[in-house]
Amino acid sequence: MIAANNPSLRSWISVPEESDFPIQNLPFGVFTTSGSTARVGTRIGDTVIDLSILAASGQLEVAGFTAEDFSQEFLNPMMKKGKEATRRLRQALSDLFSTENQAAATNESIQKALFAVNDVNMCMPVQIGDYTDFYSSKEHATNVGIMFRDPANALLPNWLWIPVGYHGRSSSVIISGQDIHRPKGQIKPDDNEPPIFAASRQVDFELEMGFITYDGKSLGDSISTTEAEDFIFGMCLFNDWSARDIQKWEYVPLGPFLAKNFASSISCWIVTLDALQPFAVESPEQDPAVLSYLAFEGKKSYDIQLEVGLTPENATEKIISNSNFKYMYWNMSQQLAHHTVNGCNVRCGDLMGSGTISGSTPDSFGSMLELAWKGTKPLAMNDGTERRFIQDGDTVTMRGFCQNAEVRIGFGEVKAKILPAK
Ligand code: CA
Fold first, then answer.
1. What digits encode the pLDDT tens for the residues 62-81?
2. Which residues are CB-contacts of 158 (< 8 A; sequence separation ≥ 6)?
3. 220: CA distance to ligand 1 center in Å?
4. CA–centroid distance, residue 364 to ligand 1 (Å)
């Protein structure tokens, strides 16, 4: 077991009950305080900890880090040091903030590194080089296939053989809390008429999770399923915003383009794969048996409970979906092995989206398209209105956490509001 995951550990920093951020989490993010430049931090309870201040007073030397590693706009320089280094760092933080370290609790320079979460401004944590989006939930792919193509052949023939994916766009990946204008484009509301140029009428969310990579191997080399987790830094919540009417008209033959690249939102804190280890679970059984380069051993999926809330303007939030990351047919190790099997190189700070995470029951679907079944089953909001897709002024909030009898490791939330088209 990773020592920092020991469920009996407690911190001298107070942690509210039901917090996503006990001392066993220790996620990484980037923040500013008023008048300061960006720096790397971690979080325990409702306290954000400035790693540049800790390192400046020598507290992180033991892990091989200096203040310069953390006086940065992004986590990339820290991640560049690789998995062993960030694992040592998380252990050093665990040692520093554990109740067993009362000297640290009264150390003045450590006190200076602590900020109330309400006094900090969270920033985009990672400088994302490339963004790849997979399509790895069998239930989601089946639902979309039924609605858009042919119910009898909902899954395309390649789907059970390949972790299907496409290259997305990193420039429009944004942080939780940044609002989005409704996209415009070509839509074709009437099958018998030519397309029109208009604001999308079918803005949707996609409940996904993302993973962030360390530097991979050189161009030409591949990462095996056995090695894959050594190249994954951590995970975040991910809302891959989509415009279904633009998508429907444009996606054949090369896949989604403007329907997907107007915005994708990520949560502020990256939770390390190390912190998620106690929640590793078996993946769903795969039939037919996968090709050998996609075969894997052990528990490569994670039991992460997910929910989506929809809050109309001036109304209260309604929870419209409860799903779980463990439903994914293809796991992250398979995705990374497939991504690199042709020699494609991944780099430090790449983002891989899971694809929409739908469960088998209608209340666990991961998009409005599925929840309201292409507009035929509108969802009732708390203010008496109905939703088929996302309306102007609506806020979508996704949350995710792992929980067992001993510990809860969470991701906080990713949220954004849809503003009227510009
Ligand atoms: Ca997606």
1. 999 999 999 999 999 999 99
2. 164
3. 27
4. 16
